[in-house]
Amino acid sequence: MADNALAELQQRLKRFATARDWEQFHSPKNLSMALMVEASELAEHFQWLTEQQSHELAPEKLEEVSLEMADIFIYLLRIAEQLEVDLLAAVERKIEINEHRYPADKVRGSSRKYNEY
Questions:
Q1: Nearest to 31 by CA among 49, 50, 9, 14
Q2: What whole-number distance in Å separates Cα of residue 34 and Cα of residue 39?
Q3: CATH topology of domain 3-104
Q4: Which of 24, 47, 57, 85 could be a cystine partner for 80, CB 3.0 to 4.6 Å?
């Protein structure tokens, strides 16, 4: 997603909340709690599935999962907007950190955390 598309989406979400007088509820604290609830709802769709089943969702289940993912993304965008965090820049920084923490030649095929090898 292009940087300006992300900003436009954030502005659309802000207008949506403002039109409903919800900005008063959209503190970073409240938004992060809502994000956790939505993440739990996403996880619930996969609870008790096998690894294989989690890759082979029926179309209606995939639609439900995609909407949960959208809820998570919406709350994340709102938190970023509230805190004036450039998410794309933060993602770039985090990828660079992870590339350093997890050099491919040391961690290939391992799920250990960076401080465990």
A1: 14
A2: 9
A3: Helix Hairpins (1.10.287)
A4: 85
